Amino acid sequence: MRKTVFLRVAVFLVLLVLILAGLTRLLVRKESMERFHPYLETAKEYDVLFMGNSHVVNDVFPFDLWRNYGITAYNLGGNGNTVPVSYWSMRLAYDYTKPKLLVMDINDIDLGDKVSGHTSNVHTTFDVYPISRTKIEAVQDLMDLPYVEDFDGNVIRDMRWEYLFTLGKYHSRWSELTAEDIYPEYSRTKGAHVAINVRESIDYEITDSLAEESGWGFAYLRKILSDCQADGIEVLLVNLPYPADEKQQMYANVVQSIADEYGVHYINFVSLDSVVDYSVDLFDGDSHLNPSGARKVTDYIGAFIRDHYDIPDRRTDPAYAHWTDEYADYLTMKNDYLTMQDGLHEALMLLHDEDYSLACLIKGDAALYGDEMSMTLLQNIGREHLYEADALNNWSELIFPLEEIDWAAEDKVPYLYILDRARPSKLECRGESQFTYDFEFGHVDYMATDESAQLSVQTKNGGMITAETDADDPDIRILVFNSVTGEYVTQLAFDGFGAVKQQ
Length: 503
Hints:
Elements: H1 2-27, H2 31-42, E1 48-51, H3 54-59, H4 62-69, E2 73-75, H5 83-94, E3 101-105, H6 119-126, H7 133-142, H8 160-164, H9 166-170, H10 179-182, H11 216-230, E4 234-239, H12 246-262, E5 265-268, H13 269-272, H14 291-308, H15 322-339, H16 344-350, E6 356-362, H17 372-381, H18 405-411, E7 415-420, E8 425-430, E9 433-439, E10 442-448, E11 453-459, E12 464-468, E13 476-482, E14 488-495, E15 499-500
Parallel strand pairs: 1-2, 1-3, 3-4, 4-5
Antiparallel strand pairs: 6-7, 6-13, 7-8, 9-10, 10-11, 11-12, 13-14, 14-15
Helix pairs in contact: 2-6, 4-14, 5-7, 5-11, 16-17
């Protein structure tokens, strides 16, 4: 009899645990799972991990590191992450694998509290991880102060339970459930976020002044360095670029002495002030980068890692062949983002991408000729990333500057710009012109007068794509091709700056 009762109780408890686990998985907010579940599934593949706040989330593209350097990396940054939260995010990640290199952004190192007032951001960082000894230690440590409140006035210490038993937090989400709660869409970007926008920078000035080292951020940065060195993990400290105010720069400048103390590299992008162009590379005016800026920063970090750390190039390793397929999916996502843009500035910004070659045809009376942002973005498309050790001021110079476009704007004549990244090479024509030429993406015929122009491209698969600048045509047409395969991607067409004409 006792055995029967015991068996029934055991079965009941097992079923209860399974039901609660299923409900938890269903009701939990999915952002954490979508961004970080792929890491948990494939953690041992990553040689490099990135930690930090939203600057890391938006500014570092792991698949670009793979494309250009064969570096396998995952972006574990989290919106609103303080340095203490990043420390525990690191410890949780290390339960799954020990990378060869940790790249840690020190932004907001001066914050006074261990967690930010947006406690939902902590959920995004931690929810994906099951209950473990490390997770319990993290919650107890981060939320041990009795006086700290979130932005809603809740005492954070009293909220510790909801980070360990998330069902209690999300049990009332029934009315919010969608198909994505049943079939989550996992990150196709290795944790990064693509923030598409173009905004001008706020005013700022570079300073080399220092603040006093104080607060939780500095204490936990030292814990990060000590723990990593104890585990044989190298660390690269970064202060990712943004138009920082004087106080923010002063605290970031202090980090150099800590880096020197522990014998690690520190790249203070804010002080460099040359890797990105704040006139076209910002998602917002004061903090985050758009994809154009992120690609410049990611490429710089990739070159720095290649030259300063023993990180293998995995592109020819058969065990990583699936990364090529995953990159193809990532490229499809980028193509979709580009095709759906209804703003000229955003489309031009996204074309600063090594995966795209293009042929751009502009009317003689196009409105964009009088728009400084559009003209700068056109120049930005062909910017190359130069990397020379200890010679950092030429990273984002114009290797293929547009020399004819200003004349075309002044004379109000048609203008053609072709960028073939496969070679690489650039071609410009303004006003009356005629030529035929073979580029890597196809055979081009062009004929123009001072009033109108006709462009045709015969692609490698035998297709024909045309663009004209007659009176009824849009201001600008851009034919986009895959720079590696030559495959035609899309045609973008804009009147003014916002309206996309149907092709």
